[in-house]
Amino acid sequence: MDFRLRNVPLLSRVGADRADHLRTDLDAAIAGWADAALLRVDSRNRVLLANGRVVLGAAITLADKPPPEAVFLGRIEGGRHVWAIRAALEPPDDDEPDAKVVDLRGLGLIIDDTSSQLVSSATALLNWHDGSRFSALDGTPTKPARGGWARVNPITGHEEFPRIDPAVICLIHDGGDRAVLARQAVWPERMFSLLAGFVEAGESFEVCVAREIREEIGLDVRDVRYLGSQPWPFPRSLMVGFHALGDPDQDFSFHDGEIAEAGWFTRDEVRTALEAGDWTSSSRSKLLLPGSISIARVIIESWAARE
Question: Where is the signal peptide (predicted)?
């Protein structure tokens, strides 16, 4: 049984113009600072959300020009530049009485593609800068460059760019009416999702799918097929989604201790769980599934929608 994603995952949608040419034309990028918007991301990767959009302040209220630690995110409607900075969140304006502080995992409420892209990019870049202040080659302190999209060794001129760690996530099904869901040992009871794992050196995505599933629950899978991808900046991952065929008659075995339990669930059981909400729900459903921010949710919904 083949299927496709019903929707583009929230964090994978096209929103703002990245305007990557301005990263190497910093004079032009800085020239837009006076009218630019500023996204503040606090030390816990939280932003301010109001009316279904991320709250953007005026950059000029921060400084007369971009500080070295600011990152250039691109341009939004009207060509307005947007920068981001790691800083405490400011109190919302009076015209935003319903503003709330949320992190990226709570952005399922955002209906605006531009907001989701800005927050995802800002979180990934700022997290990378926090952990990449010294050269991986010789330990020399590095400096931000290219509007925050690189760091440069001031002695050698060597540039380092944001790392992306690819990880696979896979829905295993029997080609019919059943799919595998699993619970990590650190998760609360009833909280289930798909199996996932990081790609190792010298390994293709498809080989990684088969290896991770065999290591985590002991199943052999075949016919691994690509579905879609989603950035996941915790701290710098790219989730690559697949589905694959498995045999319900094969016993589970939990080799690495990461998975506490797994089971085959019918499409009706999964549909019932989806209707009950997500991990944050107070429902007494036997299954609690991931929230809408996650590609896992989109994959599960797409499989459950099949007749």
Answer: none
